[in-house]
Amino acid sequence: MSEASEEIVTETLEVVENITEAVKNGTGKVPATPEGMAIAYGSLVIMALLPIFFGSFRSIKHHADQKENCEKTGEKPERMTQKDAAMFPIIASCALFGIYIVFKIFSKEYINLLLTGYFFLLGVLALTHLISTHVSRLLPSSVPLIQYHLKLTQDVGEDLIDFKFSTHDLVSLAISTVIGVWYLVKKHWIANNIFGLAFSVNGVEMLHLNNVLTGCILLGGLFIYDIFWVFATDVMVTVARSFEAPIKIVFPQDLLEKGLAADNFAMLGLGDIVIPGIFIALLLRFDVSLKRGSQVYFYVTFAAYFAGLMTTIFIMHVYKHAQPALLYLVPACLGTPLLAALVRGDIKTMFKYEDHPEEPETADDKKADATDTKKTE
């Protein structure tokens, strides 16, 4: 071998060695190409926007159904109080740190095995709820629609189980179970995302903030929570990488190179979708309550969420470090609608709006409470 050939071989080996060392010292994966990153982050943005958009509009019907049910039964709807909103970041911090400690003490494989089974059941139910209406429309007329009512009542008259379903719902359950088994066996990223999107849509639809002030308290507290656990500690990043459950949406950055077998993922936590999403859904219901034929507060906040998410991705790309998405999403999602309301003269109306206004206690209610108190004494 000539001296020139030996020099070329030596330089090539050095380059390979340097690349290998860089990979081992970093993520353990070959760095993504610009095209791969663009596809991955673009897909994450789309998957974040869709649940908020559709979940917000679904929340209008869910709110109306809940209100109708409360009027029939006389029960008060469940509300997140301002105290609940203030306590939520503290409770979430305790839960997050508890999971972190568990991962440090016990084997990650056994913990994820338990979590997989738990989220398998939740994911199947969430996906069934999401697709049941659409499956019912697509089924041929040869599939009969038979209604069932499962009810279990105590002797005292209290209903323990009161569940209505149909044969079409059973078909939806079967489809969801197949996807669940796919996730259970393969842990494929597509199955993970299907469940993650189902959780997100259901969360935005069903988790109701009753008023804007409660939403401001909740988002403000989680703003501090996210910054602390990402920047001050390694807790958030460690749990996100160790937690093998559909609590995040992922997309491979090496899809072009490896296809569906890709394994170098960009990720976004469901909390960064659902938490701002329930506030945006509240603003949509506020728009509907104004009866102006427009949804200006929903759309400006939705656009602000998109801008905040793009800012998160840009900062993360520039500094090559995990970013607390709520650091950028919360100011965007709170500041934009409040500024718009201030300009349009709706700020007082916005803060007075409540999904379920608390009815003033009547004289009969006070008398009944006094009677109950005497009986207790």
Broad shape: globular
Number of beta strands: 4
Which spans have pLDDT < 50 for at least 5 consecutive residues?
Answer: 8-27, 360-377
Order of helices and strands: HHHHEEHHHHEHEHHHHH
Q: Overall pLDDT, averaged?
A: 83
Biggest sheet descriptor: 2 strands, antiparallel
Family: Belongs to the peptidase A22B family.
Region (Disordered): 354-377
GO molecular function: aspartic endopeptidase activity, intramembrane cleaving
Biased composition (Basic and acidic residues): 363-377
Brief rundown of the structure:
By secondary structure, the protein is mainly α. The chain has helices spanning 3-25, 34-73, 82-105, 108-138, 167-186, 189-206, 212-232, 235-242, 255-258, 271-290, 296-319, 326-344, 347-352, 363-376; strands at residues 147-153, 159-166, 248-252, 265-269.
Report on the structure:
- With 377 residues, the chain is mostly helical.
- The protein has a domain at 26-104 and 188-356.
- Helices cover 72% and strands 7% of the residues.
- It contains 14 helices and four strands.
- The chain has helices spanning 3-25, 34-73, 82-105, 108-138, 167-186, 189-206, 212-232, 235-242, 255-258, 271-290, 296-319, 326-344, 347-352, 363-376; strands at residues 147-153, 159-166, 248-252, 265-269.
- The strands form two sheets. Strands 1-2 form a two-stranded antiparallel ribbon. Strands 3-4 form a two-stranded antiparallel ribbon.
- Strand 1 (147-153) and strand 2 form a beta hairpin.
- It is globular and about 60 Å long.
